[in-house]
Amino acid sequence: KFCLSVLSSVQDEAVDKSNFKKCNQIAFYRRQKLLHPGKSLYQVLLDSVTLSDENVKFQIIHEENKVLLQVEIYEIEGNIFRLKIDEVSPLKARYKVPDVLIKEPTTQKLFISHKEAGNFVLSSVNEDYKLQVTANPFQVELQSKGETVMSMNSNGLLYFEHLQPPPSDRKPTAQNDEAASDSSKEKQEDLGLWQEKFGSFLDIKAHGPTSVGTDFSLHGYDHVYGIPQHTETLLLKNTSDGDAYRLYNLDIFGHKIHDKIGIYGSVPLLLAHKPNRTSGIFWLNSSETLVDISTKAVAEHIPSAPAAEMAKQRAVPLTDVRWMSESGIIDVFLLMGPTAFDIFKQFAQLTGTQALPPLFSLGYHQCRWNYEDEQDVKAVDAGFDAHDIPYDVIWLDIEHTDGKRYFTWDKQKFQNPRKMQEHLKKKKRKLVVIVDPHIKVDPSYTLYSQAKDKGYFVKDRNGQDFEGICWPGSSCYLDFTNPEVRKWYADQFAFKTYKASTNILFVWNDMNEPSVFKGAELTMQKDAVHYNNWEHREVHNLYGYYQQMATAEGLIRRSSGKERPFVLTRSFFAGSQKYGAVWTGDNTAEWSYLKISIPMLLTINMAGISFCGADVGGFIGDPEPELLVRWYQAGAYQPFFRGHSNMESKRREPWLFGEKNTQIIRRAIRERYVLLPYLYTLFYRAHTAAEPVMRSLWIEFPGKMETFDVENEYMLGKQALLVHPVTEKEAKTVTVLFPGSEEIWYDFRKFKRMEDAGTVKIPVTLENIPVFQRGGTVIPLKTTAGKSTEWMTDISYELHVALDTEACAIGELYVDDGRSFQYLHKKQFLYRKFTFCKNILSSSCVDGSGQYHTTCVVERVIVLGFGKQPTFVTASSKDGKKKEVVFTYDTKTSMLTLGNLALSVDADWEICIS
Ligand code: MIG
Question: Which atom of ligand 1 is closest in space to residue 434's alpha carbon?
Answer without folding.
Answer: 2
